[in-house]
Amino acid sequence: MAQLARAARLILVGAPGVGKGTQAERLMKRYPQVSQLSSGDLLRNNVRNRTPLGIQAENIIKTGGLVPDGTILRLILSELTTRGWLSSEDHVRPLVLNFSSDAAALPDRDSYITPPFPPQQESRYAYSNSPSASFILDGFPRTAAQATQLDTLVPINLVVHLSTPTDIIMDRICNRWVHPPSGRIYNTTFNAPRVEGKDDVTGEPLVRREDDSPEVWEARLKKFEETSQPLLEHYERQGVLWRVQGNSSDEISPKLFTEFERRFMTGDASGRD
Fold first, then answer.
1. What is the pLDDT of residues 44-54, one digit of tens each?
2. Alpha carbon distance 245, 114 (integer Å)
């Protein structure tokens, strides 16, 4: 079993369809000390458990609003603190989110929750460098402004930019079929079902997602290129950006494993802390 020498704090950046989920799963399987923190899962868990932050987020969502960046940062802060991977250097007690609460008990506006974090150059928090405190952060940040706010919590020490040619991504999407009840995904090019149009496990029919059209994906890829560049530049200035290109996940994974081990399985690594 591969053992890390220090904590890895990763973000995977790549266009839709490039295989970020696949690479995250392979990293966690190969390096069991690495876990995944999904901002979406944290939000859904807090809404379901009726925590104070979850209640406020739910109210925002019901009115058609977007959950503020500050709220997502509080979710991440709470999760890292609960796991013992983060502690406040100035003894500021983080908001406790792992308990149920009635919405009526909350004030109309909790100033601790709703505003974004104040701009700061350095983190107020002490972070664990234990290998067991390794994680892949999924879903956040998506912009340079969000990354700057995340810097006030914990320093990311490896940002992987996954790159696959657009024509190959489009081919993956146009040939993708799914089994909605299970979420199993097939591709007629490289992962075809044993029986055409049928799920391998249940034999139920496969369907194509409504948004898996060339027009929709061309727009999504264009938007990603426009919005991701400032984020990548932010992490390049910090010296933690690493780029890898490949035509398939199987081509990318060995390169990613080699770089990951170079940075986190030796005492002297290039990723910053």
1. 999 999 988 88
2. 39
